[in-house]
Amino acid sequence: MEEATELFGMMQAMLRASEAARLSGLAPPVEGTAPRPKPKPASAPVGVPMTDEMMLTGFLALGAGTGLLAAIAKRMSEGAAAAPAARPPARSAPR
Q: Cα angle vertex 68, ends 63, 72, to 5°?
């Protein structure tokens, strides 16, 4: 649980840093500095562009999936070890 809390804190710090960097790029230039040249429009992207938020969300989903897989594997291995003995079929009474 401590590792998950630490990972969550790291992810939040990365998101804050990413948002601060994004907002600083949108801020108007300070007087006395040359304005930034506008970037050239890129060619049409192939597929979905990957952002920091998408990557962090993907890591979170990957971690959750890994945890679920580990829990299922543990339950299956415990279930196989503690399986009850098979009962013989019940015989019907003669008529």
A: 150
pLDDT grade for 24, boundaries at 50, 70 and 90: confident
CA 87 vs CA 78, 81, 84, 90: distances in Å: 20, 17, 9, 8
Q: Which two tokens stand for residue 46?
A: 């192939």
Helix locations, 27-94, DSSP H = 52-81
Nearest-CA neighbor of 59 among 15, 17, 20?
15
Tens of pLDDT, residue by residue over 31-85, are 666 666 666 666 655 666 677 888 899 999 999 999 999 999 999 988 776 655 5
The contacts of residue 56 (CB under 8 Å, 6+ apart) are: 11, 14, 15
What amino acid is encoded at 25 in this protein? G
Whether 52 contacts 18, CB under 8 Å:
yes
Encoding tokens for residue 24?
């600083």
